[in-house]
Design brief:
single chain, Glutaredoxin, Pdz3 Domain, six-stranded antiparallel β-sheet, five-stranded mixed β-sheet, binds zinc ion
Amino acid sequence: MPQQRPEAGDRPGQGFHCRALLTVLLAVASPLAARSAPATTSTATAPAVAAVMAQEARAMASAVIGNLGEGYSFQIDDRRHLVYVSALDKRTSRYVMSVLGAYCDMERQMLFAGGQLWNPVILLPTLTDFRRLSPDPKVLGFYRYSTHTLMSISLSNVLIHEFTHALHHQDQAAAGQHHAIWLAEGLATLFQQSRVKAGTLEIRTDSSLSTVRKAIQEGKALPLTELLAMDQAAFMKRAEICYLQAQSVLLFLYRQGKLRDFYLTYKETFAQDPTGRMALEKTLGRKLTDIEAAWRKWVASQDIRRSGSSAKAHLGIRMQADENGVMVTGLLAGSMAQTAGKLKVGDVITSIAGHDTPSAAELTLVVASLLPGETIDIAILRQGRPMIIQQLLGAARP
Ligand SMILES: [Zn+2]
């Protein structure tokens, strides 16, 4: 297998060893894993292969469901070769499939055109099952390379991050490559902060670039030669800067319209230089020291603060800390939350408008950065089940 590294979730620094269910998955997944890469890198799968994959998808979904018990159903996206097994309600399930479907098309079109050798499994369990199956209590999701399985209770950023790993993994396997950790995590972090809108990618840079800018100012950013050459252990050791710095380098390329060029060149030159230095120098036509100087200058020049309206959005809830996010303990009289009647006391909010909300302070910041009158997605856990609700935001009273 080209790739066997333990994956980290969005809270970096943790390795994973998940057994039980994944043992079953591994057994089902192995015939697929053993299939060799096709000669072409076309996204279209030959009809015979597609039929086998469709059959395998159903076998895999049944095996996973059999192991999880009641309350689960599966959906198969045969066009994209994706297997969904979830404890979500129908509406949320359809929503997640349409979101991931859009990312899948976009990411494959932009970067990961390599053969689809297997059906990645997207498992969206109940919180209880997630905690049982994930040995790390701090993460909201993870992707296992060995079983091609993504498991997530997040329905937003973490899910997109891990889904990007799943797609990238296939593209690497099709090329017989195992890409550098900075590239794998940089891409996953880049896409997790983006939204697919009308077939284009809108990348948010909000707080991450300001973190990198601060690190540069304080001399804590890594020299690019060091970042590029890092192995998994070194990368995770300095995770708090590595993820965001890797992302910022890729965003720097994306903004110049060079991300795809870079990625294709990286794959071409992989045998000579798996760190990506050669690919960066070829793509931008400059030496790495010059690229590094230009990247630092670019980061420093970014205006990160939101401009525009001074009106701040307001949700209107009372809340308290919860280990999985922020729990709603009350709805303020006359607020949008109360009048819309969608949020309920006891719901645990895990993300708002695609931003994770691990604490009340972060939730308040996220809401304050949105505009009154916007309808946003709020990801919640209601009695332990992930759900998405759409909520219109009100304005904060001055
Ligand atoms: Zn990751």
